[in-house]
Design goal:
Blueprint: H1 17-27, E1 29-32, H2 38-48, E2 66-69, H3 77-83, H4 86-92, E3 101-110, E4 136-142, E5 154-155, H5 164-171, H6 175-180, E6 184-185, E7 193-197, E8 202-203, E9 213-221, H7 231-234, H8 237-241, H9 245-250, H10 279-282
Antiparallel strand pairs: 1-7, 2-3, 3-9, 4-7, 4-9, 5-6, 5-8
Length: 287
């Protein structure tokens, strides 16, 4: 993988990666406060403002009183920076193999009156029996403070280690009520992120306040797994070409051993050149 790796990431003084990794292994989640400062939050709001009021959820899971802006990483430099912050990547390095991918990137604005989301885990679409290691990692970031009243994410600590039997009980009669007895509200200040394993059971809370709750989510997956969003189609190549090498790797423009990700036997980053064409298209048509 090009760029910084687990042993060479430049981390700010005072950032205790080991403590976060320990909590992620034990509880399935951790909170990183001050992930975004006042300037970052202002930049996020300014870049997102023209995109709001464009897409409401289509079902109870998306949230019918919830706005979602997808493919966020393609919509402004601030969103690229949030998705590739070295502090976050240092934590992901402990759980995902080198060359891991950005799987989803979107903003979520939960409006007053939204109901609680169903309890779920984010990498459930990978059909591999549990208990198992997470195939993905999820970030939920607070642009507005998360509170018990405005839709803070609800998590079940330790549920990242549940097997299929526990999950079946969750889906059965009274399962949610029993699980909620051990639930924790992910209350956190604006600028903080919650990071959790893709096997952790969670769900957005109901917004019982009088104001919307704005957040973002970035999700990452193993380099061999299919991503939720197809960024090859969703992010124009000329935009990817202007991104950092780390972001290009997160979007899949890299090789993992021995040759996964190639483009007609070439490195995929070569495809970002303005005049690039696959070799088969450069050949003269048959006479």
């Amino acid at each position: 993988m090009d760029g910084a790796g687990p042993a060479t990431r430049q981390l700010p003084a005072g950032f205790e990666a080991a403590g976060h990794i320990g909590r992620l292994r034990r509880d399935g989640y951790t909170i990183v406060e001050d992930y975004l400062g006042a300037e970052g939050l202002a930049a996020f709001r300014a870049a997102l403002a023209p995109l709001l009021e464009t897409h409401r959820g289509r079902n109870p899971f998306e949230g019918q009183a919830t706005e979602r802006v997808y493919t966020l990483v393609a919509r402004g430099k601030i969103f690229e920076d949030i998705a590739s912050d070295p502090r976050l990547l240092a934590l992901l390095d402990a759980f995902l193999r080198p060359g891991y991918l950005l799987s989803a990137s979107h903003a979520i604005c939960i409006h007053p009156g939204e109901a609680a989301q169903s309890l779920h885990f984010d990498d459930s679409f990978y059909p591999i029996p549990r208990p198992r290691p997470a195939i993905s990692m999820s970030v939920i970031g607070a642009v507005d403070p998360f509170t018990d009243r405005n839709g803070a994410t609800v998590i079940i600590p330790g549920s990242h280690e549940w097997g299929d039997k526990e999950l079946a009980a969750l889906r059965g009669p009274g399962g949610r009520e029993r699980a909620m007895k051990s639930a924790v509200s992910l209350a956190m200040p604006a600028g903080a992120i919650g990071l959790f394993q893709g096997t952790l059971v969670h769900g957005a809370g109901a917004n019982r306040s009088h104001a919307p709750r704005l957040a973002f989510t970035n999700q990452y997956c193993q380099p061999w797994a299919r991503t939720q969003e197809n960024f090859f189609l969703g992010v124009p190549r000329e935009r990817v070409a202007a991104m950092s090498r780390q972001m290009q790797t997160l979007l899949g423009y890299d090789i993992i051993s021995p040759f996964m990700g190639m483009v007609t036997a070439s490195h995929p980053r070569k495809s970002l050149a303005p005049d690039w064409l696959p070799p088969i298209l450069r050949q003269a048509p048959p006479g």
